[in-house]
Write a structure and sequence with these properties.
Structural class: mainly beta
Radius of gyration: 13 Å
Oligomer: single chain
Largest sheet: 7 strands, mixed
Shape: globular
Order of helices and strands: EEEEEEEEEEE
Number of helices: 0
Helix content: under 10%
Number of strands: 11
Length: about 120
């Protein structure tokens, strides 16, 4: 069992930046991937980015490539998502997620709103 706590969401103007963080606790040694999905109102939950913990390999959705950066802090079992050049269409609830033992766990989500 892994518990996830997200932080760092908020309101930002177009072109601005935010940094999201996700701290994992519990069976952290079994985590294979850590990453983020997002869900806008009335839409499905979509993949944003993830990182493979053993190798450090990163993957991004096409819509965020070149703007978002995922990184990890192994000492603190934390993954960060740096959101740059934000657009109104990035507005969504961002969910942290991990995979381990063939199962996926989710955080409670953090709201990101991009608006002038």
């Amino acid at each position: 069992q892994v518990q996830l706590v997200e932080s760092g969401g908020g309101l930002v103007q177009p072109g601005g930046s935010l940094r999201l963080s996700c701290a994992a606790s519990g069976r952290v040694s079994s985590i294979i991937t850590m990453g983020w999905y997002r869900q806008a109102p009335g839409k499905q939950r979509d993949f944003v980015a993830n990182i493979v913990i053993p190798s450090g390999q990163r993957s991004y959705a096409d819509s965020v490539k070149g703007r978002f950066i995922i990184s990890r802090d192994n000492a603190n079992n934390t993954v960060h998502l740096q959101l740059n050049s934000l657009k109104p269409e990035d507005t969504a609830i961002y969910y942290c997620t991990v995979t381990l033992g063939g199962r996926r766990s989710w955080g409670q989500g953090t709201q990101v709103t991009v608006s002038s």
